[in-house]
Amino acid sequence: MSLHQETAPGVPHVTQILADWAVNIKGADIPTEVRREGLRTFVNWTGCAVGGARHETVDRALAAVRPFSGKATSTVLGRPDRLDALHAALLNGISSHVLDYDDTHLKTIIHPAGPVASALLALAEMRPISGYDLLTALIVGMEAECRIGNCVYPHHYDRGWHITGTAGVFGAAAAVGKAIGLSSRQVRWAFGIAATQSSGLREMFGTMTKSFHPGRAAQNGMFAALLAEADYDSSERAIEAPRGFANVMSDKQDYAEIVDDLGTRWEAALNSYKPFACGIVIHPAIDGCIQLREELGDKVKAIRSVTLKTHPLVLELTGKRAPKSGLEGKFSVYHAAAAALLRGDGGPMAFTNEMVNEADIIALRDTITATADPACHEASVDIDITFEDGSTATKHVERAIGSRDVPLTDAQIDRKFVNQSVPVVGKAVTEGLLKTAWNLEQLADAAEVARASIPDNEEKAAAE
């Protein structure tokens, strides 16, 4: 055995166990409730990808990569543009995350669908796959990335790694490997090729590059699986080896989180869906401020000061006092609270370049203070408001809407989808796309979802 493949005594062959499971599990082995959550994840991701399709981040990325695209097989959702599958995976991963409105595995803060669904749907337009099989592969990929995330969280995240990018590449590799029928050894190779491409820095939060992470994870994970399909080899213990992913990129390695109860404990069933288009740690503050606005009415215009008591992670991640752009605003609890109080909004329009620079938002934002209290749960907040006349109002949010305790219903996911999609592709396309996405398991060709996302008038123009 070569040195780079050695494993410490007592450490299981994690990469092999996970690869064997991914190869051997059948769609029918996945419980109905897990498949249902996977479908909710896919519908939510589709809406987010279309919702972000016209963001300037996507425009700029598309302009940069278009000259290098190969055969145009795969759709950039919500646009008439088609690229090769690898670049389409990149663009759809960027688009689905750029509004910070996508799904969240709350135990790790991974956004599971972006890397995995972006790779799979791009693949489906190049190599046909049924909707049933795509959903199976999606769940397998999400399970792999979230279990690997569990293994190293929070130490890996605390070091500064953006875990959606670093763990997401494994999810994309597992999902594509499942979809194209790799052998167990080939999936082990794919994990190794994915591991050596694992990247994404939290320093990039608040910039266009944050959404690059799930896009690149989708592209790199797909590429890893395709290389492995061609028998391009790698270390077969890339996760657990002394110089492998877990040991190099984290001070914590809990391999039981990866290998225990595979097929009976489902991380993919724990996914949640954002009601607000920003970092999830701000959601309790937005939820509470919107509730206060509804209770107070016009009195929100007479606020003297606002105090937030939050978990320390809130200020670590979202402590930008004076954001200058919409993307920076997504990482400012001060802006988010001000927008919620004055506009009653936490959706994409609350985080535009224009909104973060509006005079009344800035004025209220400057009166807001936030204190970190380790005793405060990450999903909780205490809000205290003082008005110009000396009166006060308070609000405690124990668990915000969208959390596992207060999950979004299917109807709320539908409304979120429609509100994002209609401004981009219109009402008729949105209605057809939403129906097609919910019908995924019945589709003989999963690529119907991608085709259903193209604006009718632009599709005609592109074909002429």
Characterization of the model:
There is one protein chain. With 464 residues, the chain is α+β, with helices and mostly antiparallel strands. It folds into two domains: 3-273, 2-methylcitrate dehydratase PrpD; 280-397, 2-Layer Sandwich (60s Ribosomal Protein L30, Chain: A). 52% of the residues lie in helices and 8% in strands. It has a four-stranded mixed β-sheet, covered by helices on one side. The chain has a two-stranded antiparallel sheet with strand order 1-2. Strand 7 and strand 8 (392-397) form a beta hairpin. Helix 5 (113-126) packs across helix 10 (209-229), helix 6 runs antiparallel to helix 8 and helix 8 runs parallel beside helix 10. The protein is globular. The protein starts with 13 loop residues before the first helix and ends with a helix.
Distinct helical segment count: 22
Give the C-alpha Rg.
22 Å
Helicity range of the residues? 40-55%
> Strand pairing plus helix content: what structural class?
alpha+beta
CATH architecture of the largest domain: Orthogonal Bundle
CATH class of the largest domain: Mainly Alpha
Distance between the termini: 59 Å
| CATH fold naming of the largest domain | 2-methylcitrate dehydratase PrpD
- Structure summary, number of beta strands: 8
The H-level CATH homologous superfamily of the largest domain, spelled out, is: 2-methylcitrate dehydratase PrpD
SSE order in H/E notation? HHHEEHEHHHHHHHHEHEHHHHHEEEHHHH
- In terms of DSSP E residues, the strand content is 5-15%
Average pLDDT metric: 95
Largest pleated sheet: 4 strands, mixed
- Supply the number of structural domains: 2
Work out the oligomeric state of the chains in this entry.
Answer: single chain
For the largest sheet, list the strands in their spatial order.
6-5-7-8
The parts where pLDDT drops under 50 for at least 5 residues are 1-5, 459-464
InterPro entries: MmgE/PrpD_sf, MmgE/PrpD_sf_1, MmgE/PrpD_sf_2, MmgE_PrpD, MmgE_PrpD_C, MmgE_PrpD_N
Protein name: MmgE/PrpD family protein
Organism: Chelativorans salis
Domain MmgE/PrpD C-terminal: 276-439
